[in-house]
Amino acid sequence: MVLKGIGASKGISMAPVLLLREEEIDISENIVEDIASELNRFHSALEKSKEQLEKIKVLAQQKMGKDKAEIFQAHLLVLSDPKLVNSVENGIKSEKKNAEVILDRTIKSFVQIFESMDNEYMKERAADIKDVGGRLLKNLLGIEMVNISQLDEEVIIVAHDLAPSDTAQMDKEKVLGFVTDIGGRTSHTAIMARSLEIPAVVGLGTVTETISNSDYVIINGETGEVLVNPTEDVKNQYKEEQRKYLEYRAKLMELKDKNTATKDGKHVELGANIGTPNDLKGVLNNGAEGIGLYRTEFLYMDRTSLPTEEEQFEAYKTVLEGMEGKPVVIRTLDIGGDKEIPYLNLPKEMNPFLGYRALRICLDKTDIFKTQLRALLRASVYGNLKIMYPMVSGITEVRQANAIMDEVRKDLEAEGIVYSKDFEVGIMIEIPTAALTSDILAKEVDFFSIGTNDLIQYSTAVDRMNQNIAHLYTPYHPGVLRMIKMVIENGHKEGIWTGMCGEAAGELPLIPLLLGLGLDEFSMSATSILPARELISTLTKEKAQEIVEKAMSLATAEEVEEYLRSVIA
């Protein structure tokens, strides 16, 4: 059987399945005579759950950073909540029933109360209580939980989705791949898989109902194929494909410390996209010449309160120091749309991608924005910082953001806090009006970075998460390409550099075209850097311009894609 999903992280893996699926727990009701003993059972389970969560928290700090570990502190607080503990204790004492019956009823009652609240942040806490309550209940019943930090054999994890606690515990030596029911190329699971350099296929719909623990699968993280219980011949065929892929990757490593240049010497910069300081290792291992996009929203997500100025400063400083003077483009807070932060209690909207998000929130909630800018400026002395505003639709927003930046500078100077005066300030071009007024915008910023994920979505009027119209979402649309060409030309006319940090920058067939259009910097997932460097080294400026001339004369996205794929075949 062959299943087809979305290839989220390249590579081929094969192994037995480890299915992570929540099963119903069967609870029997008993009358207890020895109340003290029953209370001891409950408290033993409570302590065991706390110990487990403390270990997960430490692992999360080591593998994913302090900010990601914050969520487990919230889970620990649930276990120490007197309302929860007292409610179970009192139920055992008054009703003389076994602890699991009382606990199960208490957890369900708490979850129901939180789920019925209007406040989105409080609703989100219901999920925490459900998770923690499930752990506590299993410990009380002596049910063994799958410990993916201590696996005995290599596996491919199949799950509905992967929670932060799953990825935090994961043993990369044993987990060879992910397969999930939900998710797209920009989902948390996909980003984590690419960060860990583990092949992954996401968005398979109901794979957790199709596959069982007794199955063996092969996954191809490039094509999105999942082969279930393949024959020995097919296994051997994929082993050969895997061998060739690993050989190809090893060969690419020879380019790790090379300059990125065409055959005739034109240099372009290849940067990496990151979400947390923990991604630095992959960036350096893959020979990135900078960081073209540091998505700071991950500092704000999966936690219960805003990150402090000090927490942010430490994260930015770590990345800037780690890159040792190479350029680091840090994007200011970009939340809203599909990136929710429950504790901010932002209003639900009819069209969230067209709504209150990113720079629009920062210009409204200036206290949040100023805290981030202070942390960024303080960190600027530790490296080559470039600050980027997302979701700019016109010049007014740039001027407003710069005015707030000026206030922050003055505050720091008044407080005698040192910052570098050499940092650059640029914008993401991801809204059609920004592209169409890029000649005006270029006069007031230091650089452009084209965010193709949103630019394609907004310019083609295609919701990139809508599977019914997914075929219409394409970077090869002639209208999108003309907009990109305009932005690069307008940037160059004003003497500023123009990069690209959307998924299209790492799309191999597009690279010759973007090179011919004069793109100065390409930023992509770390694992895409070496294939891109190899391809660029085979091109010349003249050849890239020929490709532009031909591609820009074609009428449809299909024609453009077919032509560009033939160029690199």
UniProtKB/TrEMBL annotation:
<dbReference type="GO" id="GO:0008965">
    <property type="term" value="F:phosphoenolpyruvate-protein phosphotransferase activity"/>
</dbReference>
<feature type="active site" description="Proton donor">
    <location>
        <position position="501"/>
    </location>
</feature>
<dbReference type="InterPro" id="IPR036637">
    <property type="entry name" value="Phosphohistidine_dom_sf"/>
</dbReference>
<dbReference type="GO" id="GO:0016301">
    <property type="term" value="F:kinase activity"/>
</dbReference>
<keyword id="KW-0418">Kinase</keyword>
<dbReference type="GO" id="GO:0009401">
    <property type="term" value="P:phosphoenolpyruvate-dependent sugar phosphotransferase system"/>
</dbReference>
<feature type="binding site">
    <location>
        <position position="430"/>
    </location>
    <ligand>
        <name>Mg(2+)</name>
    </ligand>
</feature>
<dbReference type="InterPro" id="IPR024692">
    <property type="entry name" value="PTS_EI"/>
</dbReference>
<keyword id="KW-0808">Transferase</keyword>
<keyword id="KW-0175">Coiled coil</keyword>
<keyword id="KW-0762">Sugar transport</keyword>
<feature type="active site" description="Tele-phosphohistidine intermediate">
    <location>
        <position position="188"/>
    </location>
</feature>
<dbReference type="InterPro" id="IPR018274">
    <property type="entry name" value="PEP_util_AS"/>
</dbReference>
<protein>
    <recommendedName>
        <fullName>Phosphoenolpyruvate-protein phosphotransferase</fullName>
        <ecNumber>2.7.3.9</ecNumber>
    </recommendedName>
</protein>
<keyword id="KW-0813">Transport</keyword>
<dbReference type="InterPro" id="IPR036618">
    <property type="entry name" value="PtsI_HPr-bd_sf"/>
</dbReference>
<dbReference type="GO" id="GO:0005737">
    <property type="term" value="C:cytoplasm"/>
</dbReference>
<dbReference type="InterPro" id="IPR015813">
    <property type="entry name" value="Pyrv/PenolPyrv_kinase-like_dom"/>
</dbReference>
<feature type="binding site">
    <location>
        <position position="295"/>
    </location>
    <ligand>
        <name>phosphoenolpyruvate</name>
    </ligand>
</feature>
<dbReference type="InterPro" id="IPR000121">
    <property type="entry name" value="PEP_util_C"/>
</dbReference>
<feature type="coiled-coil region">
    <location>
        <begin position="231"/>
        <end position="258"/>
    </location>
</feature>
<feature type="binding site">
    <location>
        <position position="464"/>
    </location>
    <ligand>
        <name>phosphoenolpyruvate</name>
    </ligand>
</feature>
<dbReference type="InterPro" id="IPR050499">
    <property type="entry name" value="PEP-utilizing_PTS_enzyme"/>
</dbReference>
<dbReference type="Pfam" id="PF02896">
    <property type="entry name" value="PEP-utilizers_C"/>
</dbReference>
<dbReference type="Pfam" id="PF00391">
    <property type="entry name" value="PEP-utilizers"/>
</dbReference>
<keyword id="KW-0963">Cytoplasm</keyword>
<dbReference type="InterPro" id="IPR006318">
    <property type="entry name" value="PTS_EI-like"/>
</dbReference>
<comment type="function">
    <text>General (non sugar-specific) component of the phosphoenolpyruvate-dependent sugar phosphotransferase system (sugar PTS). This major carbohydrate active-transport system catalyzes the phosphorylation of incoming sugar substrates concomitantly with their translocation across the cell membrane. Enzyme I transfers the phosphoryl group from phosphoenolpyruvate (PEP) to the phosphoryl carrier protein (HPr).</text>
</comment>
<feature type="binding site">
    <location>
        <begin position="453"/>
        <end position="454"/>
    </location>
    <ligand>
        <name>phosphoenolpyruvate</name>
    </ligand>
</feature>
<keyword id="KW-0460">Magnesium</keyword>
<feature type="domain" description="PEP-utilising enzyme C-terminal">
    <location>
        <begin position="250"/>
        <end position="538"/>
    </location>
</feature>
<dbReference type="Pfam" id="PF05524">
    <property type="entry name" value="PEP-utilisers_N"/>
</dbReference>
<dbReference type="InterPro" id="IPR040442">
    <property type="entry name" value="Pyrv_kinase-like_dom_sf"/>
</dbReference>
<keyword id="KW-0479">Metal-binding</keyword>
<feature type="binding site">
    <location>
        <position position="331"/>
    </location>
    <ligand>
        <name>phosphoenolpyruvate</name>
    </ligand>
</feature>
<feature type="domain" description="PEP-utilising enzyme mobile">
    <location>
        <begin position="152"/>
        <end position="224"/>
    </location>
</feature>
<dbReference type="InterPro" id="IPR008279">
    <property type="entry name" value="PEP-util_enz_mobile_dom"/>
</dbReference>
<feature type="domain" description="Phosphotransferase system enzyme I N-terminal">
    <location>
        <begin position="4"/>
        <end position="125"/>
    </location>
</feature>
<keyword id="KW-0598">Phosphotransferase system</keyword>
<keyword id="KW-0670">Pyruvate</keyword>
<dbReference type="GO" id="GO:0046872">
    <property type="term" value="F:metal ion binding"/>
</dbReference>
<feature type="binding site">
    <location>
        <position position="454"/>
    </location>
    <ligand>
        <name>Mg(2+)</name>
    </ligand>
</feature>
